[in-house]
User: Fold this.
Amino acid sequence: MQLGGYTDRNLLIDISNKSFKTIDWLKQKNDWLKFVGGRGFGAKIIWESTNADTDPLSPDSIITLNTGPLTGLPIPGAGRISMCAISPLTGIWADSSVGGAAGAEIKQCGYDSVIIKGRNKHPIYLHIHDEGVDFENAKHLWGKGSFETETIIKDELNNDARVLTIGPAGENLVLFACITTDYGRQAGRTGMGTILGSKNIKAIAINGTKDIPVTDLKKVVEITDEAIEFLLKNDPERYNIFTRHGTTMSLDWAQEVACLPTRNFQENVFEQSENINAESMEEKIKIADRGCYCCPLACGKLTKTKVNGEQVYVEGPEYETLALLGSNLGLGNLEAIAAANYLCDYYGLDTISTGGVIGFAIECAQRGLISLDGLKAEWGNTETIFNLIEKISYRKGLGKILAHGVKKAAETFGNGCQSLTMHVKGLEQSGYETRSLPGMSLAYGTSDMGAHHSRSTIVGWETRTDRFGITKEKVETQILLQHQRSLFDALGTCRFQWCECKLPFEFYPRYYVATTGIDADQDELLLGSERIFNLTRMINIRRGVSRKDDYPPERVFKEPLPSGSYKGKKMEREDYDRLLEMYYELRGWDKNGIPTKEKLAALGLR
Assistant:
């Protein structure tokens, strides 16, 4: 049986012996469709292929590149890949979604998921194409930056391959190294680049020419025409602002509602925010717009800046980078933030974790707890910031410790440094300060991958509706958002059309039905998303996660905000416990955060 939207095949690559084989997953026990695709397929693969003791950096570990049923079709933003693994940074479930067009190429090669295991003795890059996989020598690429590597491989293959690369940070096993594609799109979080580096994989090039099966292509195109018309006409001002500025427009909003991380999250407003906002970026450094596969939003912003006196170009900075490498480091110079963004992309570092680690190090040094290898412990000091980026990438000096992320670095430093770490489950916190936002504190605390906003940005609902409430409605909204946002990763498409430009969520079940021919409504797809969330929870429980790990950083409870409109505010632990207990109850988990047998049975996970 051929379903629309799925190729029905996965590709398993063992780089230890340079072999590969195709897995016809539809001919296996047919429970794959319960997980929809994308991150759902990744969760199923990781659950079945790892255990409590799997070392993320061992040859036995795997990394999966997963498309969804909508990936590669004429649907706005439908080119995404969900990369899934056990994280070398956190030791638990990890996924990182990346845009661009590589996801469409994987589908055009004839695969839904690519599963990579083993370790090669020497650096290689993989070339995946219609006929299979070539294993190419990459010794000449080892040590090169991500952009240069992509160009060299494209030239060597003499084609328009989509290329996923790592930089020196991935080669040196920095635990928050990322994977780069399309000269600036990142699978940024949780150390996916580290896993490739541990396997001696410098890059993955992908060329596909096959047609993607679809049940009713005419209907898919009709829905897309309707979606684009809605985007253009429903709220043209919102659409125009987002296409003009992309996520950078969020910086003024975060400053206005007082959740902009500043100086290692010590504060929630930044006195130089106007110097690094969207208007300033447009005026000073923006030169063009860039879009992902089949997307009219073009939310990526190409900018120019200088590094070591030479002009360079970078896609970004996006909001999270402006926040973590900007306000979080007390840096109000837009050109310097863009330069730091470029360096992170070149070396292959997650800008969020990098900003979190450097902010942590500066605060520790200011408090006399560590030294910075002779660098000045000053907020906004570009010499310190740029040097620490390089030290981390090459594990030099202090960088040897910081390369492990804030949680492990603080454990190494001791001396009270743990109280200054901003992470959940070992993942550095992304761009929202939450002492005055109990719902967003819960979002970070209960995220299956750690303190990342990809699971829920209830901060928007919370600031509009009920900022300080400790209510069942807030928890119900949180759970719904976790399921809705997760579904986009399973379908293989971007969520910005929905969450930023207000395309009704109902469009996506319609896309799914037209694409696959499976008669599923919104509730059934959200049930699949809930199933994924519970399965990743079980992966984490197997890896040792429990209730103690479902809390925001200690600063949220212990340090009142020192300034701004919410001066003196902090999260009360008793209030958070009430939210967490409601969350567990509504999810069907016990008081320790473990899904009950009844819940797992109801979801078909037993």
